[in-house]
Design goal:
By secondary structure, this protein is of the alpha/beta class. The protein has a single domain, classed as Response regulator (Rossmann fold), CATH 3.40.50.2300. It has a five-stranded parallel beta sheet with strand order 2-1-3-4-5, sandwiched between helices.
């Protein structure tokens, strides 16, 4: 797994552009896609250190994407950070919340994002089964 390679998934192209710029500026190698199904394929074929995943997307929501990633031995141990504009307390069960390695609520600042990325990349991960 490449610690510097990050996959960003959000159906909002403006968010993708901003995140890509911030990540490149911070020394990361981001790949981006607005298509959740494509993101699952990219994650399975890539060597990502982290996946940043929006929850509310039209084609497939972020929870469905995460379930597919966790079910695949190639991606099960890759940390996944959820980004969402939703209020966590009202929108998700505790079990759903715990499926993600970290959560970032929109709007957020570059420094907050980069701090959470650094933490996610340094945190120990269980080996895939």
């Amino acid at each position: 797994m490449s610690a510097k390679k990050i996959l960003v998934v959000d159906d909002n192209e403006s968010i993708l552009s901003i995140l890509k710029y911030w990540l490149i500026d911070a020394g990361y190698a981001p790949d981006t896609t607005p298509h959740p199904a494509k993101a699952v394929r990219m994650a399975r074929e890539g060597d990502y250190g982290l996946i940043i995943l929006d929850v509310m997307m039209e084609e497939m929501n972020g929870i469905e994407v995460l379930e597919q990633l966790r079910a695949d031995e190639r991606t099960a141990s890759v940390p996944v950070m959820m980004i969402t504009a939703l209020s966590l307390q009202r929108s998700f069960s505790a079990e759903t919340f715990e499926m993600f390695d970290d959560i970032l609520t929109k709007p957020f600042h570059k420094e907050e994002l980069l701090e959470k990325i650094e933490h996610a990349l340094m945190a120990p991960r269980p080996l895939a089964k």
